[in-house]
Structure to design on (569 residues):
């Protein structure tokens, strides 16, 4: 990982990813078949924080720059990476100026201009829009089109790490002409644009059936005339992780299957069939249990799981949250569900290594049922005749939800048993991944609405700097009816002291000081038990042995170089 000083001082040539393989001609390798067992519900990454939507959209719409498998920045739509040395980043660190590649075209043949980049910022920051990637634009004062190919981003204060807005697959450029009437509350209503964005990537959406299948064709205006090698791509959604793995590793029906969250011994047997292989990359993915800081009682109506509905009756007690974490045996969860693809963790930022804290490992990583019981006893939570603890008429009884997946259901069962040993009753619920991660504001079952006490899933950040990710837990970023249930602070946590430290990180240049502040922020989240981190997960996917040049990245979309994928001859 390059530190901040190196990134700001290096020339663009040093940051460009390795040269891509040569292609014979566009479309000569037929159909590419992709399988996501969590089906995609939208192709607009600004309306969903779900990884499945972000990855699918990355085939079509692109950022100015991305991250290679080593975490290094490389230009995508930009001509080069702006730095202090090349004049792209101002010496006072208050501006960054991007230059677009020459003659870029949208898939409809119209030119890509700086106005499209400016509009993307306006789209995500429009009042009432509930942009799912709002943290990417924190600290941005203005975005200006200096000329048709030049974009100047000005920050409210010096920005030591300026590679946030328009960088990485979570912050792509959208076409102004297509989305100009979709600002603010109108954003979810633009179905045609949200399902089939006009893009600059190697593929174009031909047909999109939400929560089912997406048919792509090669972008005729892609900037490399020899790419992509595949004439079409089909992304099938639904089913389960086991059947997805089987379709690549055993039957060979598909070329790629994302997110192999399957028991390790099962995967090993499948891979032995010789038709495919598993690729993994550790980035920043953490399987966690989010705890709801607000009251999810259905009797609250529209105020359910909102700040206006009031604090959670029992999870607002930090002792309860800590006891829930202490009762969990993370080693068993890793052993039974993840194997080599997981490591026990108590941190929400487990990597890169420079940012990984170990402060709370001594008390958090080891299960302590007796200690958890003592905490609750001392805090006045007494067990009743049914064995369930209560205080002031409030019982420790929780609805714990997650997406449908055998590993997650097994983890739920383990957690339910451990929590029962400390006097906590748990009702388990699983929701189809397509719905849970879909972001539909009309659905009561999305992870953003959080109509439960606890919920489990994986999340991560792109790139190697965690500043935008850590900013997600700042006050005011919670999903609510006002934002169409979009927002990044899923737990509804609010701590002014935390916010102050995030702002300090944003203004800090020295790498060692940034690392220190990031660890402090991580430690606040751990010690406050805002969520219960469980497993540091490697990104684990299945690829056919018939594919060449497919390379998994832990710091960007797994499909980051899909334009380079080819079929072995």
């Amino acid at each position: 990982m390059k530190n901040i000083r190196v990134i700001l001082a290096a020339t663009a040539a040093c940051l460009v990813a390795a040269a891509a393989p040569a292609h014979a001609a566009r479309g000569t390798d037929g159909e590419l078949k992709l399988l996501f067992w969590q089906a995609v519900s939208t192709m607009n990454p600004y309306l969903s924080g779900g990884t499945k939507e972000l990855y699918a959209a990355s085939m079509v719409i692109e950022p100015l720059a991305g991250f290679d498998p080593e975490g290094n920045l490389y230009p995508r739509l930009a001509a080069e990476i702006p730095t202090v040395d090349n004049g792209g980043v101002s010496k006072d660190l208050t501006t960054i100026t991007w230059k677009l590649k020459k003659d870029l075209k949208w898939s409809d043949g119209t030119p890509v201009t700086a106005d499209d980049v400016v509009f993307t910022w306006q789209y995500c920051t429009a009042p009432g829009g509930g942009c799912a990637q709002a943290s990417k634009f924190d600290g941005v004062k203005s975005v200006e089109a200096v000329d048709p190919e030049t974009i100047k981003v000005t920050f409210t204060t010096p920005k030591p790490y300026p590679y946030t807005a328009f960088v990485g697959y979570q912050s792509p450029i959208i076409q102004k002409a297509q989305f100009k009437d979709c600002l603010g509350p109108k954003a979810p209503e633009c179905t045609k644009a949200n399902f089939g964005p006009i893009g600059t990537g190697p593929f174009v959406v031909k047909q999109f059936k939400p929560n089912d299948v997406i048919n792509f064709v090669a972008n005729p205006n892609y900037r490399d005339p020899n790419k992509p090698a595949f004439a079409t791509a089909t992304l099938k959604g639904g089913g389960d992780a086991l059947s997805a793995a089987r379709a690549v590793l055993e039957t060979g029906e598909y070329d790629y299957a994302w997110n192999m969250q399957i028991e390790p011994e099962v995967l090993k047997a499948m891979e032995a069939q010789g038709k495919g292989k598993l690729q993994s990359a550790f980035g920043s993915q953490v399987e966690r249990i989010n705890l709801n800081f607000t009251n999810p009682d259905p009797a609250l109506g529209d105020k359910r799981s909102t700040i206006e509905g009031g604090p959670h009756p029992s999870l607002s007690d930090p002792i309860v949250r800590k006891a829930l974490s202490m009762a969990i045996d993370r080693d068993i969860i890793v052993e039974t569900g993840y194997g080599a693809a997981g490591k026990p963790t108590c941190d929400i930022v487990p990597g890169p290594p420079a940012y990984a804290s170990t402060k709370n490992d001594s008390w958090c990583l080891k299960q302590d049922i007796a200690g958890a019981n003592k905490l609750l006893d001392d805090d006045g939570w007494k067990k009743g005749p049914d064995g369930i603890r209560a205080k002031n008429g409030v019982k420790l009884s929780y609805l714990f939800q997650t997406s449908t997946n055998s590993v997650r259901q097994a983890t739920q069962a383990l957690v339910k048993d451990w929590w029962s040993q400390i006097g906590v009753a748990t009702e388990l619920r699983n929701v189809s991944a397509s719905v849970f991660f879909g972001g539909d504001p009309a659905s009561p079952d999305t992870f953003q609405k959080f109509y439960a006490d606890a919920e489990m899933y994986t999340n991560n950040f792109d790139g190697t700097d965690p500043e935008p990710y850590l900013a997600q837990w700042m006050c005011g970023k919670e999903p609510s009816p006002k934002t169409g249930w979009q927002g990044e602070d899923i737990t509804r946590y609010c701590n002014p002291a935390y916010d102050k430290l995030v702002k300090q990180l944003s203004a800090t240049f020295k790498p060692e000081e940034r690392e220190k502040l990031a660890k402090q922020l991580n430690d606040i989240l751990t010690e406050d038990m805002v969520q219960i981190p469980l497993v540091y997960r490697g990104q684990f996917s299945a690829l056919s042995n018939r594919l060449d040049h497919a390379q998994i990245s832990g710091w960007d979309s797994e499909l980051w170089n899909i334009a380079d994928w080819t079929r072995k001859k």
In short: The domain at 282-385+397-538 is CATH 3.10.105.10 (Dipeptide-binding Protein; domain 3). The longest strand covers residues 276-291. The radius of gyration is 23 Å.
